[in-house]
Amino acid sequence: MGNDMKYTSRSGIAMIPALLAFAVGAPGLAHAFQEAPMLAAQVSQGKLPPVDQRLPQKPEVIKPLDKVGVYGGVLRTAVRGDADHNNILKLVGNQGLTRWKPDYGGAMPNLAESWTANADASEYTFKLRTGLKWSDGAAFGADDITFFVNDLLPNKQFFQSPPSQYVINGQPMTAEKIDDSTVKIKFAGPNLQFPNVLATPLGQHATLYSKHYCAQFTPQYNPDLAKLLAESKQPDWATLFRQKCGDIEIPARWANPARPTMDPWVITTPYTGGGTQVVLSRNPYFWQVDTAGNQLPYIDSVNMKVVSDIQTMLLATIGGQFDFLVRHINTINNKPVLSQHADEAGYTLVELSPTDSSAMAIWPNETEPDAKLRPFMQNHDFRAALSLGIDRNEINDIVYLGQGKPWQVGPLPADKFYNEKLGTQYTAYDPATANKMLDGMGLSKRGPNGMRLLPDGSKLFVSIDAMTADTAAIDVADLIKKQWAKIGIDTGINTMERSLYYERAQNNSYDFGTYAVPGGLNPTSDPRAILSTHTLDSRQSLPWVKWYASGGKAGEAPSESMQKRLKLWDEWKQTGQADKADALFKQILASAADAFEVIGTVEAVTTFGIRSKKLMNVPASMPNGWDYPNPAPTLPATYFFVK
Amino acid sequence: MGRFIARRLLGMIPFIFLVSITVFLLIKLTPGDFVSNYAASLAASGETVDDSMLADMRTRYGLDQPVIVQYWDWISGVVKGDFGYSFQWQQPVVSLIGERIGLTLIMSVSTLFFTWAIALPIGVYSAVRRYSWGDYFFTMLGFLGLAIPGFLMALILMFVGVSVFHTDVGGLFSPEYANAPWSWERVVDLAKHLWVPMIILGTSGAASLIRIMRANLLDQLHQPYVDTARAKGLSEVTLLIRYPIRVALNPFVSTLGFVLPQLVSGSVIISIVLNLPTAGPLLLQALLGQDQYLAGAFLLLLCSLTVFGTLVSDILLALLDPRIRYQ
């Protein structure tokens, strides 16, 4: 179980023609390393040590996608005024022990130069690159990792309960320092997914906190903490710690310029309420070089303009004010306007291939609150008839500009877990069969308006919940309402603000939810439509989620089929062997296909961002996701401007 | 007069206290809380957050406490000048609001003067030359300004700016001045950007003011005292300025109470569209995200401004119009 294990659990999907980058140890580069002119100037003034001393002994050598670049320039992009901190994370702040290969085909070394696992994948030994330095020049090493894993993770004041990605069998992971650049991480059971988890944003706590800086905010390392607390007027040390050192996804992560990081650019103008721009400038200690020995990043600084309104952002984009933007403007209906202005504004489109499965799905509530309706919502044939009553081609043409194709849920054909039945059953538009099926289940009586009645003669009426911000959901629901009228199903559409939408889900007071379905690629990372495990968005039934999360003490017992799947899922989590785990997950998918719980509409469609024509080394197409936090895995540090 | 002001000031205290309760309850009445909103907003962009993390935040921010406890925590701080902590930004509310309120005041006050500067002369002209071509022209312009929503006009202006002039019309500063310390160049840069929101915000305000001025003045122009003054040989301009316009100004002053809070909240949508670093967008974000102490502080500030504005307008009215003083 050595190196080969790293690359086995993912399929290689050739979305980017060539591997963007590979990691080698740079054995004996003859020439010294080069640095950006702005840093060379600081070195000659004696403000910085020479580049060879700033880089690790063997920096990671990156082969740029197009060619070796030149230094300089400002990357102009946009960030929204609130709740958009992850925008910065996805662009610069994604330096974990591992990272995704550019094609999302598995984890590869990042801050760790290599790793090994024991036979049942419950212990991982990470070999860090020697001589890595934080952005303030202090050494990065095993101590920083044990600081998080052993000091912060189990601390009840810091985490009331540790984040689930670090917990196996109820026990948080522990770390053991072997030497300054080797660390062993242990779990209470097998954790086959760990290298992949480390590549996702949520798995990067271990490399987020520099011990030499952040330890001053913990009572364990700073006896004078009380003074700091009083000065900062913070209620407790955990709050102060997060304000200064951040957390994975809070805005405060980007609010403290003094916080040392391992990122290619470090924050100089912070992201705060009321700011007009966020500026990051190059990290003089960044640890990657290109094949010619130039220290990365090429681009001097990143300037993110704070734009609150998405239409304004789009307007600024077509006005040529941004060099790179793959967020917010990337909806399918923006494609025409983006294409139209590409030449005059000097950008080209970047394809964002979906990692989602279905662009929009209808989620029937299996624990429907209305007792008369509930038996039907739980009836496989009722859901199948509803699915046959949806004209997916019409939805595709009108809402998705004909870019998609009829699709249910589950892994896409490109994924190794592809399950044809799960993805394509009941996608044909067949109102005749649908009508026959509905007639056959006791819904044959019709009211004066031609709509079906329940067996007791009362009206059959269902409503679809949709968020006002999610215009695609509203458009799709509108079409479905008309299509379902043809099979006698009286449908209402309930549009509401986001918080109410989530509140109704938590209170189990909805008939149908609407949401895109994740899990088109790497379906094990977000199986919310297959397994009722997502506490906010497994809308096939949130009481089922509560049942599973509480070990059967709360919520409602799921259907037999779901219980079987959840059991297989537990087994999957416990498995230390990749092939066995894959077999288990395939069983889960097959069972989900039989149960047919979530009604998909159209396959997730490719959307488009932009890059300036002068910006090189940007792949023409990249996966778009959260677990794969694009563009970070395509290495923005290698982007550069041609003169 | 002094006693009157003192009595009014004392009366404000219980009123603002009631306002603070109402404001806080209204914020808490909306479904969910900051943490559920935070999770939902991440989920809406396809991002996930760990559940134990959420539970953790809820305890840390005291959101699991009863509303009355949360209210007490807040209001006991407010009395001491501590307006609490913004959950979203991990910053004291005061520093967040302070950053923006200055620019908001600059923009609003200049808009106010712009509005008055065009509305008053046009209003007077329309009244004196009633049913003339000029009156019709300005009336039409006024109704257009009233009828076109500000955000639409903002979007159109920006689109024209981008596609015809290839300039950036959003914001209040060019990027190089955005974070620079104040200097003469920065003031000039601000002035270069300020006219766009000033015109957009001013147009709709000016339209209604023109109508008010015109109607008020028309009421006065045919009063006997105007005829008397004219019979005594006063020139038309002096007559107009000295008597009817002074009386017609009363409604302007008495609406000052509403103008003050309008300064902060009136321009929310336009500020968002034009991307202005003023207080409006932050207030909206705080309300949508249920960042309760930040939103609470804003709303409390707005209500206090209304109360204060009413007082100021009462005092001004008394100064302006002797009849009110003696009643």
Descriptive overview:
The complex is a heterodimer of chains A (643) and B (327). Chain A is an alpha+beta fold. Chain A folds into two domains: 3-208 and 246-352 and 608-641, Periplasmic binding protein-like II (D-Maltodextrin-Binding Protein, domain 2); 358-603, Dipeptide-binding Protein, Domain 3 (Dipeptide-binding Protein, domain 3), CATH 3.10.105.10. In chain A, strands 2-14-12-11 form a four-stranded mixed sheet, covered by helices on one side. In chain A, strands 5-6-10-9 form a four-stranded antiparallel sheet, covered by helices on one side. A four-stranded mixed sheet of chain A has the order 15-22-16-24. In chain A, helix 13 packs antiparallel against helix 16 (431-443). Chain A is globular, with a radius of gyration of 26 Å. With 327 residues, chain B is mainly alpha-helical. Chain B has two domains: 2-93, no CATH class; 95-326, MetI-like (MetI-like fold, Orthogonal Bundle). Chain B is built from 18 helices and two strands. Chain B has helices spanning 2-29, 34-44, 51-60, 67-79, 93-128, 133-147, 150-163, 175-178, 184-221, 224-231, 236-242, 244-248, 250-254, 256-265, 268-274, 279-288, 292-320, 322-326, and strands spanning 85-86, 91-92. Chains A and B meet through helix 8, strand 14, helix 9 and helix 18 of A and helix 2, helix 3, strand 2, helix 5 and helix 7 of B.
Which key terms come to mind for this protein?
heterodimer, A: 643 residues, alpha+beta, D-Maltodextrin-Binding Protein, domain 2, Dipeptide-binding Protein, domain 3, 21 helices, disordered N terminus, B: 327 residues, mainly alpha, MetI-like fold, two-stranded antiparallel ribbon, globular
